[in-house]
Write a structure and sequence with these properties.
It contains eleven helices and eight strands. By secondary structure, the chain is of the alpha+beta class. The chain has three domains: 86 residues, Orthogonal Bundle (Butyryl-Coa Dehydrogenase, subunit A, domain 1), CATH 1.10.540; 115 residues, Beta Barrel (Butyryl-CoA Dehydrogenase, subunit A, domain 2), CATH 2.40.110.10; 120 residues, Butyryl-CoA Dehydrogenase, subunit A, domain 3, CATH 1.20.140. The strands form two sheets. Strands 1-4-5-8 form a four-stranded mixed sheet. Strands 2-3-7-6 form a four-stranded antiparallel sheet, with no helix packed on it. α4 packs antiparallel against α6, α7 packs parallel to α9 and α9 packs antiparallel against α10. The longest helix has 33 residues. The protein is globular and about 70 Å long.
């Protein structure tokens, strides 16, 4: 493991920092993670990504013909670390950049790549991922949203839920069931869907942190041209695996903290510990210590992935491990931050009106579900890393319509 930048990486990091400083007045700055709501600051979020894209800091490893920089994954990881350092909030098109765009690159037609990718990088179009449903979250292949062929179109009916950024999205990648008589993994097909098409209804879901980052989406006789299909009919699961692999790398890769950076917690502890009574100080110090240890362990393990990228390799199941450990560490950091607030931990009690720590504490449990639940990730690691036998799954072989689901 190499903890330091090599000369080329150090030069690139300095380049990124210089560009961020040069454009600081045009960029949105805020708290860590999701402390700013893209739905209420949409214009500023789109502008920030457009400025970063024009500076060459978005889609760094994407091919130049699709608007990218033709760079490396390690350069993208460096840029992400520097965005966090500069307190730039999570990009409004992070779903498009980390999941939808790579899926279009891998499985889209030349026409789709031409029409969508450059605009996605600039946040001219915001994208979402339409996978989970009320009865199929962890068991994604059990989805029931249908697409039926009608001439040159497919007619879609069904419901998706927990869709991040659907309320501001222009397009989405949509996983549907097109052949219920085949086994559940074999009867799926993926499409690009216009989120403004007739029959698409988006309803934001209010979360306990106060925002509405997740949504439920309804499809009522939505017509999607066959030209918007990603991959062949029935190959949707193979296409979806591309998305899921990129999702876990996006959430758990690169050595960056998930949630509030541990350095922010340390500064918070220096400010708040003296104001707590002796008994509270003991508990708060223990909570901070546990959070720091977990965060640094996760970060340094992330540097292993960073080193693999630096040497030209690709991450494997370790991305799942990074996501699993990163969300656990992020929750410890948020919980310790709230404990340090003492009596100000009650929502709205802070004299300065800053509810960042309470908001992050309320937001973090959702990350233990997004991008693969903790339980699903443990199964992946058990089977693919430890070599444990998978659980028997009779529903994998029979037709989905045959009642084995």
């Amino acid at each position: 493991m190499d903890f330091d930048d090599n000369p080329e990486e150090a030069e690139y990091r300095a380049h990124v920092r210089a560009l961020l400083e040069q454009h600081t007045g045009e960029l949105l700055h805020g708290g860590a993670g999701e402390s700013l709501d893209p739905a209420t600051h949409e214009a500023e979020f789109r502008r920030t990504q457009r400025v970063l894209a024009e500076a060459g800091l978005i889609g760094i490893p994407w091919p130049r013909e699709h608007g990218g920089q033709g760079g490396t994954l390690v350069q993208q990881a460096i840029a992400g670390q520097e965005f966090s350092r500069a307190r730039i909030p999570t990009l409004i098109n992070h779903i498009g950049l980390g999941m939808c765009g790579p899926t279009v690159i891998a499985h889209g037609s030349d026409d789709q790549k031409e029409r969508y990718l450059a605009r996605l990088l600039r946040a001219d179009d915001v994208w979402c991922q339409l996978f989970s449903e009320p009865a199929s979250g962890s068991d994604l292949a059990a989805l029931r949203t249908t697409a039926v062929r009608d001439g040159d179109d497919w007619v879609v009916n069904g419901q998706k839920v927990w869709t991040t950024l659907a309320q501001v999205a222009d397009y989405g990648i949509l996983l549907t069931r097109t052949d219920p008589d085949r086994p559940k993994h074999a009867g799926l097909t993926m499409f690009v869907v216009d989120m403004h098409a007739p029959g698409v209804t988006v309803r934001p879901l209010r979360q306990m942190a106060g925002g509405s980052g997740f949504n439920e989406v309804f499809f009522d006789d939505v017509r999607i041209p066959d030209a918007e299909r990603l991959g062949e009919p029935g190959e949707g699961w193979r296409v979806a695996l591309t998305t899921l692999m990129n999702e876990r790398v996006a959430i758990g890769g690169g050595g960056s903290d998930i949630g509030v950076p541990v350095e922010t917690l340390a500064a918070h502890a220096r400010d708040r510990l003296p104001a707590l009574g002796p008994d509270r100080q003991v508990l708060a110090r223990q909570a901070v210590g546990r959070a720091v240890v977990a965060s640094l362990a996760t970060r340094y393990t992330g540097y292993r992935r960073f080193t693999v990228l630096s040497q030209g390799g690709l991450p494997g199941p370790e991305a799942s491990a990074g996501k699993l450990a990163g969300t656990a560490a992020g929750r410890l950091v948020a919980d310790a931050g709230v404990r340090l607030l003492g009596d100000d931990a009650v929502y709205g009690a802070a004299a300065d009106g800053d509810d960042t720590w309470q908001g992050m504490q309320a937001y973090m449990p959702g990350l233990a579900i997004a991008g693969g639940t903790d339980q699903v990730l443990r199964n992946i690691l058990g089977e693919r890393v430890l070599g444990l036998p998978p659980e028997p799954r009779a529903d994998k072989s029979g037709p989905f319509s045959g009642g084995t689901r």
